[in-house]
Each structure stands twice: as structure tokens, then as C-alpha cells.
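> tool_call: predict_assembly(chains=two)
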Amino acid sequence: MTVIEARGLRKAFGATIALDGVDLRVEEGRILGLIGPNGAGKTTALNAILGLTPYQGELRVLGRNPWTERDQLMRDVCFIADVAVLPRWIKVSQALDYVAGVHPRFDRAKAESFLAKTTIRSASKVRELSKGMVAQLHLALVMAIDARLLVLDEPTLGLDILYRKQFYDSLLNDYFDRSRTIVVTTHQVEEIQNVLTDLMFINRGRIVLNCSMEEVESRYVEVTVHPEQVAAARALKPIHERQVLGRSILLFDLMTLDKVDRQQLAAFGDTRTPSIADLFVAVMGNQASAAPGARR
Amino acid sequence: MNTESNAVPESFDSQPIAPAAISPTQPFYWSVRRELWENRSIYIAPLAVAAVFLFSFLISAIHLPSKMRAALALDPMQQQELIGKPYNFVALSIMATAIIVGVFYSLDALHGERRDRTILFWKSLPVSDFTTVLSKASIPIVILPLLAFAITVATQCIMLLVSTAVLLASGQSVTTVWTHLPLFQMSLMLFCHLLGVHGLWYAPFYGWLLLVSGWARRAAFLWAALPLLAIGVVEKIVFNTSHFGALLTSRLTGGSEGAALTGSASMHPMTYLALGRFLSSSGLWIGLAVAAAFLAAAVRLRRYQGPI
């Protein structure tokens, strides 16, 4: 079943085009990472999906129009838009009361049992909690909601590595199942590498890569090339090349290569699947160089 | 935008988890409670005024027996005025406090949530912009007048009990106090005045303040006050009239309709008459329509607004 479906999604702020005809389709049970440089349009895309901003084009989230049906949609959609958007004056117990009062799918006991595993006390106010604890609280609230779609926009920004790791562990172990869908944006790509099932790169309001993690594995190969074979390897037109400790590491896109397979590449050196971060640098770098010199 | 908006795929119906039933009024109720959690000044400020007043009343109660002896020499009208004075004064003080709290609350209500980015959290929950704005508007229009009423009446009851105790202790008769203090009528009048004038009659002001607080990026107070001033000045220069100013003044002072509601002091049956006249006055309904328009604009605005 399709959870998010967008066709020709456009959004402009004055002369700045934040989304430039985005086509998007997210199926149920996927964990999609939306990765892009700052100002690429990630947050705008999420805001459109969440009904926080009007847009042009067609967009359905769980079969609804998010802009006109935001309040109904929010029964089935949860989001953490940012760390630290919980009101600082609210008490933990009040936050539980409030969400239980307004949300038909909130399971208070579940949130409390999650909070019991943390050091957060229910009499504390949010302003007394550390940034990591606020993120834990927000996650506890969100995980206790039986939502179909969870949208996370930089949910771990500014948290230390322990909290970040714990955040994704909880999400995967205690929350995610095949009937839920998660869309996440983050700059800390390495940390979600093993969490994602799908990957989407977005740049200047356009989607530049959209594939599942299995496709990434079958499509992209990174080769640490033996020095004497660099020239031969380069002849196969890698999409990216970088130097690490004097060795050339070449990244190949098997889809653009004819009659080249892994065995051939393996002859040049050690092969492996690139990390998302390296793939990102390669794809975005090509974007920058492939872009017409209109700016100059 | 999309015409096939209700074409939900069939599989969406096969929901394994039945959502707990939430009545439509529940988000409103919790939104109002939320406002009271966040803005504790709504009840603390009038309570503080009442407490200060009670404290000074207790101290002045030492002189009460001698004052009462002096009062007995006066004619009944003067007696009533003298005895009722502190009771009216406390009512006025709490009213003024409620207005100040209401104005500051309204100016911040839709501004604060954008300033501290919490709007992103509130909007992540299934509460419509309409419910949110309505709950915020209900604070100055309904909740504050009701709170002011309850606190005033409680304070006046305590004052009466203290007076009675002091007079009894000094061996004086309490009948003068009790007969000259129509507490029930005073309360009834206060109730009508608070809900009628402070709530309904002033509603367009609060609607305007809420609209400005949802629109202004900063200095909401200036944006609320300066346009009104500008309209008055422009009218004065262009037409050399001051209808807008007169309109605002009559609205602020309660107008003849409000005065009718409040003026009929101790004449008990008149209160109902005045109430009927107030409720059927065009001024009230035009004001409410204007308030509704402001609030509708605020609802629409909130849909588009994110953090600032």
C-alpha cells in the first residue's frame, strides 16, 4: 500500500524554488532516508507531507490531502519536527495528559513504561530536562501513538552519540514493524545507514537518487584500486574518485556501465558497497559538476 | 486542490487497532487546560489581587466597630454606600486585573507558540487550527470573566464573614451590614456585567488582539495599537471627523447598552429588563460578528504560519 504519493510537487518561496516537481512514492513498511545538503528542500517536502505548508502539484498522504485535512491526518501521522519543540513550561505528566486527551491513538501506559526506563520523572518540567532527555520524552510520546506514518526531521540534531544511538535503537526495536512507515531526514547519515530500507537524495528541490538499500548494494561498487591499475580503472568512468592514504578509491555505478560486472572490478582491487556518506558525496559532486555553468 | 480527495484505498479500512473514542469537545477542553497550564497568570493575578485586598481588609477590620458606630448616625443611602464601598472596590480591582491579563494573554497567545517553535509540536497533534484559536479566544472572553466572578464573590463572602465576626466580637449588631449589603443582587449584577461587557461586548477587541498576535512577527503590541491610531488620525485629517475614535471609545466604555446592563444597581427586576435590552442590542451582535471575522482570519492565518 502506498503511504505517500506525490506527483509534480512544487513549492516556491518568492524567487527561490524549494521543490521543483518532485515525484515520490513511499510504500508501507519502509524506512526512507531523505538526504540532501542544507537548503535542498527536505524540510519543505516534509512540511508539505505534514500539511504545514501549501504546495502545488498532487500529494496524498494515507489517501488524504495533507493541506486541507491536516487535523484528521495527524491521527495517523506523527512527527518530530525538530529537537526541542516541546514547550519548556510543560510538565512531563501534563504532556502525557494532553496527548492522551487529544489523541485517539495514544497509549498512555506505553509512554509511561518507556519513560520508566529513562531517568525522566513525571513531575519534571521540560525546561529542567537535558536536551537528550527532551528527545527521549518526545520519542516516548510519539512511540506510544499508534501511527501509520512517522516523520522525523533531524530528530537527533545536537544530541550526543549515546542518545543518538539509543534513539534509533528504540525506534527500531520498540516501534517499527512492517505496518508502519518512517521518513527521516538527517545529516548524520552514517548512523542511519543500517536503519534505512530506502534512500532518497534530494538537491535543489529535485530528487537525484531514489532507490532501495538493496539496489544501492547491487548497483554501486566502491573499489580500492591497486596503484598500477588506476588508469585502467579510470577508463571505466567511475562516478567518483577520492584518495585515502595514497590509495585511489573509485566508485562505480554498475547501471551506467555496459558489460562491466563485479568480477571485472574486483580485479582492480578490494570491492565493497559504498557508505551512504560516500555515495552522497559522489552523487552530489556529480550534480554540482553536471549542472550547467548558468551561474557563472 | 485534488478532486479525488475522498478516494481512500480500500485497504485503509482494514484497521487492526480501533481508535479510542474521542468526542469532538475533548480536544477543545484539553486545549483550554493547556492554556491555563501555560499562562498561570490567568488565575494567579486575580487571586493575588484578592489576597492583597483581603490582607489590607483584615488589618483595617480593627477600625470596623468604630466605623460602624459612626455609620449608624448616617441616613440609609449613605450607610449603604459606605458599607458597600470596599465590596465594589474589590470587584473593580479584580475586573481591571482580568482585563490587563486578558490583553497581554491575547497579544501573546498566537505569537508565543511561533516564537518558541512549539507550534510544530501542537500542529503534530490532531487538533484543528479552529479548535486551537477558539480555545485561545475563550480565555479572555469566557474563562477570565468567570474566574473574575468566582474570585470576587469568594473574596466578598470572606469580607462579609470577617466583618460579621469582628462586629459580633465587639458586641455590635450585624444587621446594618447584612441589610445594606445585597450580596446576591450584587453578584448577579457582577455576573451579567463580567460576561456581558467584559466577555461579549469586548470580544471584538480580543479578536483583534488574537489576530494581530497570529500575524505580527514581533512587537505585537505596536501592531495592535498603531493601526487603530492611524485610522483615527487619517480620518481626522481627511474628513475632519472622529467617528472611529468615538466608536472605539464607546466600545471601550461599554456603550449605552453596557451602561444599561450595569447601571440598574439594586433594582432587582430591572436587571432582567436591562439584560434583555443588552442582548437584543445591535451593538452587541455587530461586535460579535466583527469578533467572529477576526477569529476566522486568525484561524486561516494559523494554517499558514510556522515558527518565526
